[in-house]
Design a protein that fits this description.
Largest sheet: 5 strands, antiparallel
Number of helices: 3
CATH superfamily of the domain at 39-165 and 174-182 and 197-213: Uncharacterised protein YcnI-like PF07987, DUF1775
Shape: globular
Number of strands: 11
Domain YncI copper-binding: 36-182
Signal peptide: 1-35
CATH architecture of the domain at 39-165 and 174-182 and 197-213: Sandwich
InterPro entries: TAT_signal, YcnI-copper_dom, YcnI-like_sf
Helix content: 10-25%
CATH class of the domain at 39-165 and 174-182 and 197-213: Mainly Beta
Region (Disordered): 240-263
Oligomer: single chain
Distance between the termini: 57 Å
Pfam families: DUF1775
Structural class: alpha+beta
Strand content: 25-35%
């Protein structure tokens, strides 16, 4: 295809191509983010209470999700599941190998090891849902907490439990475990916030991953419309500049449409 020698049109087409490429990358990012169970913390500061939102996508191709089992890391003693009208929630406890003394001086011999959400009706693969836990983060700034999550479906299951090796990018794993990295308080004493270490949950794309697929489709349509508008606007600008650059030919006296007829 021969590219026009018009510099304005050439710049317009180049800008449109760049915008189109950016849009394609954004769409690919949205698709990738929605493929995994991820967790979004509302805060990550050590020794504070945080709300952890687990985004549940389709995990078994076209089969609906029936149960989600979230395993708590050994550093946590308990988790409080938030009520979700689409699911029932239950705690699984385990006996500790030896008593554990807490910061307030009390001692526990059992801890909550898992939270099990059971769907009242299978979650359709075209939809997503969000499950929220309240937890007390440990006093361990810099430590990454992993939450292996088993997603059971009407047919099959997906075990989101893979842990990255030292220096490995968690996104390179096929079924990474959701994770949160604990941070220290800011120097000024304010609460510090940080993104989940294993998922895309702290960006606009990741936030969209907790919504339903219909909302994602609307976002994609809006993005495509924006790119199309950019292309049309650029071409219109090129035509406009091309027209204004042509010399204007003055009419000869008496040759206009309203000139008096010759006698």
């Amino acid at each position: 295809m021969k590219i026009s020698s018009n510099p304005v049109l050439r710049r317009t087409l180049t800008a449109t191509a760049v915008a189109g490429g950016t849009a394609a990358l954004m769409l690919a990012g949205i698709s990738g983010a929605s493929a995994h169970v991820g967790v979004t913390p509302d805060k990550t500061t050590a020794n504070t209470y945080a709300l952890l939102t687990f985004g549940i996508p389709h995990g078994c191709e076209e089969s609906g999700t029936t149960k989600v089992t979230i395993t708590l890391p050994a550093e946590l003693n308990d988790a409080q599941p938030t009520v979700n009208p689409n699911w029932t929630a239950a705690k699984v406890t385990e006996q500790l190998a030896e008593p554990r003394k807490l910061a307030d001086g009390t001692t526990i011999t059992k801890r909550t090891s898992q939270i099990v959400y059971t769907a009242k009706a299978p979650l359709e693969p075209a939809l997503r849902d969000a499950l929220v836990l309240s937890v007390k983060l440990p006093d361990a700034a810099g430590q990454t907490l992993y939450f292996p999550t088993l997603q059971n479906c009407e047919a099959g299951q997906t075990d989101w439990s893979q842990l990255p090796a030292e220096g490995q990018d968690p996104h390179s794993l096929k079924a990474p475990a959701p994770s949160v990295t604990v941070t220290a308080a800011a120097a000024d004493g304010h609460t510090a916030h940080a993104a989940s270490a294993a998922d895309t949950t702290a960006t606009p794309v990741q936030a969209a991953a907790v919504s339903d697929d219909g909302a994602q489709a609307r976002s994609w349509a809006g993005l495509a419309a924006g790119v199309g508008g950019l292309a049309l606007g650029g071409l219109a600008l090129a035509r406009s500049r091309g027209n204004t650059s042509a010399p204007v030919r003055a009419s000869a006296p008496g040759s206009g449409p309203h000139s008096a007829p010759k006698e």
